[in-house]
Model the fold of this input.
Amino acid sequence: QVQLVESGGDLVQAGGSLRLSCVASGTGIIFSINAMGWYRQAPGKQRERVATINSGGRTNYAGSVKGRFTISRDNAKNTVHLQMNSLKPEDTAVYYCAADSSNVLGSKPDYWGQGTQVTVSS
Done:
């Protein structure tokens, strides 16, 4: 079993930056996780995939955040980060960390975190 715990969500002004972190823990975790990433869900909207990174370090971003957000991971610490710059009010959402035993993070990851709130004021 794998647990994901996010941190770093906050209230920030438009144009500001935040760094989200997610730590994975559990038994046999080294063999349980390959792809990791971040999703977000704004009020009244569907959850969307924001950024993913596989075990080899290949990254993928949603078009709305490309050039502003950067995902990275530290395999030794079982941690994934999301650096968010030039934040916009439309980035306001609950951000969820996710992980999968495969090397592709699809619509139904194996593991989810509890979410962390990011609010961007105009």
